[in-house]
Design goal:
By secondary structure, the chain is mainly alpha-helical. The chain has 2 domains: 210 residues, 3-Layer(aba) Sandwich (Rossmann fold), CATH 3.40.50; 78 residues, Tyrosyl-Transfer RNA Synthetase, CATH 1.10.240.10. The chain is built from 13 helices and 5 strands. It is globular. Bound molecules: tryptophanyl-5'AMP.
Length: 329
């Protein structure tokens, strides 16, 4: 089984990214051939600083390695190092419907937030994401709930390509965790946790100091009542139950049973302790890894070489099937 996922470059990766996605990346290394990409080309679809972008790629690489990605057991690389991604984006755009791109909810949300320029890159973003995965003919895409629609688009485009040009591409399956696929903002538990759209205090960063993590969890908005149970009218408590369930590796019902009869205060303290223990080792390992930029660059370059070997074979077949370039080139 080939697994592929991508993540945006930023040093501000949060608990939602960790629980929804990074945890699955680590586990993917035991399940199959795992390929993970830091998507710097996606990052330029919104305003950014060039110098910071390079740094953020290293920040993200160090977070992923600190979380447990092992370059001997997975391929970790920077998207722009494998130019086949951009070429395949254009080739696949020929079988992408403009209407489908218009329906992408992330595009609608992100373009509405742009004050100066809603770039064409933002509109094309999902096609690049489709190319990321189809270039590797990956069968399995571990992501959080917010990426489900993009993976459906991958399936649609692979299907349309195969019908038109022959069975070359693989329709990937989405892999969304059962619990923790959509971690909510601790201050506004009806909105997903996010560094771009969410609240500062409601977003626990993987690199936050333990006392900051504790403060954020302890000040999480809770709901009326005092029962620690999941319910549609209890988005705050439901979110904390999901977080504790994942972090402790137990079922949500087990969490509910354990805290039946205790107040919100005791429950939140337990969540705070558990989250601190969960992310602290990553923060500790991060410092050493991030300090060695040359080492990170070597890891990414070696990853890119292995990735390119796979992606270039796919692009060559796609070009051939589409009548692009001299035959057999
Ligand atoms: P990005 O960098 O925004 O997020 C990385 C991963 O974290 C998940 N995630 C969450 N999971 C649970 N709760 C949350 N609150 C939460 N917020 C984010 C995301 O679902 C994602 O899995 N477009 C992608 C990157 C990408 C990609 C790809 C993904 C580029 N190419 C190919 C898969 C396959 C993105 O912006 O992720």
């Amino acid at each position: 089984m080939r697994i592929f996922s991508g993540i945006q470059p930023t040093g501000r990766k949060h608990l939602g990214n960790y629980i929804g996605a990074i945890r699955q990346y680590v586990e993917g290394q035991d399940r199959g051939e795992a390929i993970y990409c830091i998507v710097d080309l996606h990052a330029i679809s919104v305003p950014y600083e060039p110098v910071e972008l390079r740094d953020h790629v290293y920040d993200t690489a160090a977070i992923l390695l600190a979380a447990g990605l092992d370059p001997d057991r997975c391929i970790l690389f920077r998207q722009s190092d494998v130019r086949e991604h951009t070429e395949l984006t254009w080739l696949l755009s020929a079988v992408t419907s403009h209407g489908d791109l218009n329906r992408m909810t992330q595009f609608k949300e992100k373009s509405a937030r742009q004050r100066e320029l809603a770039s064409a890159a933002l509109f094309f973003y999902p096609v690049l994401q489709v190319a990321d995965v189809l270039a590797y003919r990956a069968g399995d895409v571990p992501v959080g709930e917010d990426q489900r629609q993009h993976v459906e688009l991958m399936r649609e485009i692979a299907r349309r390509f195969n019908e038109r040009f022959g069975e070359l591409l693989v329709e990937p399956e989405v892999r969304v965790p059962e619990v923790g696929a959509r971690i909510m903002d601790l201050q506004e538990p009806t909105a997903k946790m996010s560094t771009t759209g969410g609240s500062e205090q409601g977003t626990v960063l993987v690199l936050d100091e333990p006392d900051v993590v504790r403060k954020k969890v302890m000040s999480a908005v809770t709901d009326s009542g005092s029962d620690v149970v999941r319910a549609p009218d209890k988005p705050g408590i439901s979110n904390l139950i999901e977080i504790l369930s994942v972090v402790r590796g137990v079922g949500t019902q087990e969490v509910e049973r354990e805290f039946a009869g205790s107040g919100y205060g005791d429950f939140k303290r337990a969540v705070a302790d558990a989250v601190v223990h969960y992310v602290a080792p990553v923060r500790e390992r991060y410092a050493g890894l991030r300090g060695d930029e040359a080492g990170l660059e070597r890891t990414l370059a070696a990853g890119a070489e292995r990735a390119r070997a796979i992606a270039s074979a796919t692009v060559a077949e796609v070009r051939e099937a589409m009548g692009i370039g001299a035959s057999g080139s």
